[in-house]
Write a structure and sequence with these properties.
388 residues, alpha+beta, ten-stranded mixed β-sheet, five-stranded antiparallel β-sheet, 19 strands, 25% helix
Length: 388
């Protein structure tokens, strides 16, 4: 086996220089845990045409495997919920369903967790097990409980953790339920994106403990929430920055597809927009859109003549907004019980008038009945999502 001690030290140096690795305890963990153990049986690298090139851990050139392992990027380890790199030798298509997240994101999150000696941590989304191993090194294997929904992914992570010398508590199950048998926890960290913080996590966290989770469903419009749990099942906190993770499996929503012209055939209104819908390509507007219209999906398509098409759909509320570009700006056609773009545009105009703050300006308050988000004291920038 190749000795990757120099690569681990170099990774720690890069993370420290980037400002995400801040404490000597976490630096020691980065230098101690071999990332390559957590990438078996291999990875998929993106190639032209939306395909993936498999690189198997066994049989790969050792030098190439080491270079891949310590890249400063996320590495896809599973496609379509079942395919691993040892099962094919040719480039394939598919959607990533498990990965080893870029070390910058992993280390940044666990630094933000503010752990102390003796803390008991619940991790939602074991993935490859690399972040679990880092926490085991820092806190001790008996103080880490990690939950993974995919049995195959969980088994591979458990084997990798054992190979690295950590016999921690690995659980196969729905992480949205937490793991009450080992509660209460001092810290909860989620390495998947969720639409809201489940109240089960709050109930399983000690008063004064933290929960760190990525909120949202749009790939490039999610926010990292850090909340402190209080008495009586209440939690309060804020969005501390941008974050991007795969959606929790049980909350994954298939993209809107099929006959889009049929979905948008009957418009109830048509008008000029006050803001171009392309504003949704920016991170903060995308995040705020999900607060204003939690069920909305941004959909891009191509007309038969090659024209790009842009829509917002809320399938549960059977509502849509279709955008048409012209020389003077954009027209929006809206249909269904809810005028989607009206609500979203009102939010984005208020956000712009407030100086276009970053998502770190968003505060949140959670109870067993609702999640409330706000920016400042503008009533338009205030959203309450009730739990049915």
């Amino acid at each position: 086996m190749t000795d990757t001690t120099p690569e681990r030290r170099a990774l720690a140096d890069r993370l420290e220089k980037a400002g995400v690795l801040k404490t000597p305890q976490w630096r020691a963990a980065v230098e101690a845990v071999p990332r390559e153990l957590f990438l078996h049986p291999g990875v998929f690298l993106p190639v032209d045409g939306g395909r993936w090139r498999p690189v198997s851990a066994v049989g790969a050139d050792p030098a190439e495997w080491t270079r891949i392992t310590y890249r400063d990027e996320s590495l896809t380890t599973q496609l379509d919920g079942h395919l691993t790199a040892d099962q094919t030798s040719d480039p394939v298509t598919g959607g990533p369903t498990s990965s080893s997240t870029t070390p910058v994101t992993v280390i940044g999150m666990i630094e933000d967790l503010d752990v102390e000696e003796g803390h008991h941590v619940l991790e939602i989304g074991t993935g490859t097990g690399y972040s679990s191993a880092l926490m085991c090194h820092r806190l001790g294997e008996d103080n880490v409980t990690t939950v993974e929904v995919d049995p195959g992914v969980a088994a591979r992570a458990d084997a990798a953790l054992e190979a690295a010398g950590y016999s921690t508590w690995t659980v196969t199950g729905d992480g949205l339920l937490g793991h009450p048998r080992r509660a209460p926890y001092d810290r909860v960290i989620a390495t998947c994106a969720v639409r809201r913080i489940p109240h089960t996590w709050i109930r399983q966290t000690k008063p004064g403990g933290f929960i760190l989770a990525t909120l949202g469903a749009w790939p490039y419009g999610t926010g990292l929430a850090k909340v402190t749990v209080g008495e009586g099942g209440i939690a309060e906190g804020r969005i501390i920055g941008r974050s991007s993770f795969m959606q929790a499996r049980s909350q994954f929503t298939a993209p809107v597809s099929g006959d889009l012209s049929a979905r948008t055939a009957y418009a109830d209104s048509e008008r000029e927009t006050k803001l171009p819908p392309t504003v949704l390509d920016a991170w903060a507007p995308a995040f705020l859109t999900q607060l204003a219209a939690p069920g909305a999906q941004l959909t891009r398509a191509m007309a038969s003549d090659g024209r790009p098409l842009l829509y917002l759909f809320d399938p549960d509320r059977e509502s849509f907004a279709e955008f048409v570009a012209h020389s003077a700006g954009w027209t929006v056609r809206q249909g269904g019980p809810v005028a989607l773009w009206d609500d979203i545009e009102r939010t984005l105009v208020a956000w712009r008038d407030a100086g276009s703050p970053d998502i770190s300006a968003v505060r949140l308050h959670i109870t067993d009945r609702s999640h409330t988000y706000w920016i400042g004291d503008n009533p338009v920038l205030h959203w309450q999502h009730r739990i049915a």
